[in-house]
Amino acid sequence: MKKIVVYGAGAYAKVFYNEVRRTNALEIAAFTIDNAYIGDCKTLFGLPIIPFEDCVHYFPPEEYDMIVLCGYTKMRDRKIMFDKAKEKGYFLSNYISPDAYMEENITMGENNIIFSNAFVGYGGTMGDGNVIRQNVYLGHNFQIGDHNIISSGVTIGGNLKMRNLSFIALGVTIVDSGNIGNECLIGAGSVVVKPVLEYSKYYGNPAKLISKHYETGVIV
């Protein structure tokens, strides 16, 4: 397996580094961020931080893979960063914690991060760039698109259909056959019993429509 360059140096990248250090499942060689954001930051956890614009010269994609770790402050940035990494020729690795439980017959694209103690049910599919945090229960036969974040403690019944760029906050429950549209935000502790409309924020028990955000996408 190739060594990994992590694209990102924020909170998610730091959480991921400590997860990988504990599990020893990957070897991280360096971090990279866009030159405009580097400032005086030259190292993180003793590893170099390289301007993304120059990354291929120091860590060529023929020798290194990449993992994009963008947070949830502005969810549309997740796809932008993913696409920039692909344009430079990197293969974007998946990370599945050795402490996660993965059932059989699961297919996924690139750059999916599944943290420790997640349970992922059988027969599911997911695209690219999804994050499943610790202590998530994800039921069988799910269909998940791209660049979603499912936060810690979320419980999701079987047959979920979830599209792209949504953020599911702490402790949400989604009943069987949940249907989550594009770019949705579901607030912490909500209970979802009906389809969630795209470009919308939902909150409560049961979850209700609070606002729409077509122009901006999900901003947390």
Distance between the termini: 35 Å
Count of the domains: 2
Name the shape in a single word.
globular
| Strand proportion | 25-35%
- Any low-confidence stretches, pLDDT <50, length ≥5? none
Radius of gyration: 17 Å
Describe the largest sheet: 8 strands, mixed
CATH topology of the largest domain: UDP N-Acetylglucosamine Acyltransferase, domain 1
The ordered string of helix (H) and strand (E) elements is EHEEEHEHEEEEEEEEEEEEEEEEEEE
Let me know the number of strands. Answer: 24
Mind telling me which CATH architecture of the largest domain this is? 3 Solenoid
The CATH superfamily of the largest domain is identified as Hexapeptide repeat proteins
Number of helices: 3
Strand order of the largest sheet: 6-9-12-15-18-21-23-24
Could you give a short description of this structure?
The protein has three helices and 24 strands. The chain is of the alpha/beta class. The chain folds into two domains: 3-87, Rossmann fold (3-Layer(aba) Sandwich); 95-208, UDP N-Acetylglucosamine Acyltransferase, domain 1 (3 Solenoid).
